[in-house]
Design a protein that fits this description.
197 residues, mainly alpha, 73% helix, elongated
């Protein structure tokens, strides 16, 4: 019985993540979520008192997956700029693969201050890594603020692109993470060229 209840709860969280990812918080109804999960409204209300409680659980699941990726990338001990590139590419892959992460990112934007902010799991890490580049250095690390802003913009774009490509078999040939890695190569090459002129 407990195993079935746990499976039902997880099915509801997955269905809610899909709905929140596709339609946002306001555009998702409990009826849509139960229909998507193939579960009754009674089962939903047994596990979650409200749509807000369900959204909080989706956000928590997305945050946990994101923190795990942030931790794995931090263990690599790469140079600061390379670690920022690795982190943003890993997060783009996560956005492509995990609907709860995409939903958490969207819910954080649509409901600021309601729960954990998805970007708060990775933005301070980027700032910390770029802070280790040292003041006054030339080259790609010279303007930490610009690189941090670029990382932020790239991840916002990666989230949007991953959402649009979700479930499309033809999108496998054009992965968001691969595109983001190429953008970083071009940007860093341009910064390196600029610092030598």
């Amino acid at each position: 019985m407990q195993e079935r209840a746990a499976r039902t709860r997880q099915d509801l969280i997955c269905a809610a993540a899909r709905e929140f990812d596709r339609n946002g918080y306001a555009g998702s109804s409990l009826a849509d979520i139960t229909r998507s999960a193939g579960i009754s409204m009674g089962a939903l209300t047994f596990h979650f008192r409200s749509k807000q409680d369900l959204a909080a659980e989706v956000r928590a699941e997305g945050q946990a997956a994101t923190l795990a990726v942030v931790g794995r990338v931090a263990e690599r001990r790469e140079d600061p700029v390379r670690s920022v590139v690795s982190l943003t590419v890993a997060l783009a892959e996560l956005l492509e693969q995990d609907v709860a992460v995409r939903a958490a990112a969207r819910l954080a934007r649509e409901q600021p201050g309601v729960g954990p902010d998805w970007s708060a799991t990775w933005a301070p890490v980027i700032q910390e890594h770029l802070g280790r580049t040292g003041a006054g250095r030339s080259g790609p690390a010279a303007d930490r603020t610009v690189l941090a802003t670029l990382a932020d913009y790239l991840l916002l774009g990666a989230e949007d692109r991953a959402r649009r490509q979700a479930g499309r078999p033809d999108a496998l040939d054009d992965r968001t993470a691969g595109t983001l890695a190429r953008i970083w190569e071009i940007a860093l090459r341009g910064l390196a060229t600029e610092s030598h002129s």
